[in-house]
Amino acid sequence: MTHKLPITRRRMLQISAAAGGMALIPAGGPWASANQPLVWRGIALGAPASIKLYSPAIGDARKTLERAIAELRRLEGVFSLYLPESALSRLNRHGELRYPPLELVGLFSQAKAIAFETGGAFDPTIQPLWALYAEHFARTPSAVSGPPPAEIARVLGRVDYRAIELSAERIAFRRRGMAASLNGIAQGYITDRVADILREAGFGQVLIDLGEPRALGTHPSGRPWRVGVRAPDGAGIIRRMEIIDKAVATSAPLGTPFEPTGRFHHLLDPRTGESAGNYESVTVTARNATLADGFSTAFSAMAWDDVLRIVRRSGALRVDALGVGGEALSAVR
What are the tens digits of pLDDT across the range 205-249? Predict the structure, then answer.
């Protein structure tokens, strides 16, 4: 059975001075000045989403934004676990997918690269393990322990990114019972695709938040865009960041716990089968949202020394973490 992440997956980031409203909302008339935004708000991959676009020509901006949103919806039909006929859902149901969408092949390729880089701390075939935990706590909501170790060991035999066969003609799982979730990276990928459409159309002052905020250019005032990282319990802001032409993603155990205490949560270590417990939150800043999304998920399950080694090799990542004891950790390259 394929399980779906709840809507409140990882909403740990808050964009400062975000505008309100639904659908496409110009802040002024049809020809607003450059400091008046066009704002879209809706749902993307089961979570609240927004796009804020500054342009002196609201009519042109509206058309481009509508095209970007149409692409967002199309990609949901590729990556979503909520939609039974999405390409990913069909792959999980049948164990293979002939002539898959190129976007699915491309994202699996990036996911496997991050999995290799992080020694398996990120793994797109995590879905059977997630399903085991979800079913366990659905049956026994007041349980004080996770699934039996023997069950975890059994399911871990189905979790291995190296067992994905990947080509333009076919995606297939080499082991029976495998399934994939791209929820740890798909929001970032779709964010980047939306950013590409807007940038190629000539818009250079944009803030996209589909779960992983990404900025194009600066705020119209000339300053960087400001991003606030919420505390793991949602009470206030623990860190404020400024970004230009970068993306930010935060992973936190309290984002989606399986049970009230938060001890068992969705940030599962694919190598051990247990909920990761190294940090209260991990925030990654990168040149694009796909990398920020994937690495924030992976780093949540990694020791800090291992995170540092990857950051030093990458040359393009920043990591800010809050340890379980409240210590602030930071690595920049």
Answer: 999 999 889 999 999 999 999 988 877 766 677 788 899 999 999
Domains, in order of start, for the chain? 94-173 (1.10.3980.10)
Q: What is the pLDDT of residue 9?
A: 39
Distance CA 159, CA 132 (A): 12
Of residues 308 and 238, more confidence is placed in: 308
**3-state SS class at 81:** coil
User: Other C-beta atoms within 10 Å of 177: how many?
Assistant: 11
| Structural tokens at position 23 | 């659908």
223/61: higher pLDDT: 223
Compute the distance between CA of residue 76 and CA of residue 287 in angstroms, rounded to an integer.
23
Which two structure tokens, joined as six digits, stand for 190?
């779709």
Of the candidates 262, 281, 279, 280, the one whose C-alpha atom is nearest the C-alpha of residue 137 is 262
Measured between alpha carbons, how far is 227 from 267 in angstroms, rounded to an integer? 23
Q: What does the block give as tokens for 322? A: 């809050």
CA-based radius of gyration for the chain = 20
- pLDDT, one tens digit per residue, over 111-163 is 999 999 999 999 999 999 999 999 999 999 989 999 999 999 999 999 999 99
3-state secondary structure of 148: coil
Note whether 8 and 262 are within 8 A (CB).
Answer: no
Q: Report the C-alpha gap between 176 and 65 in whole angstroms.
A: 42
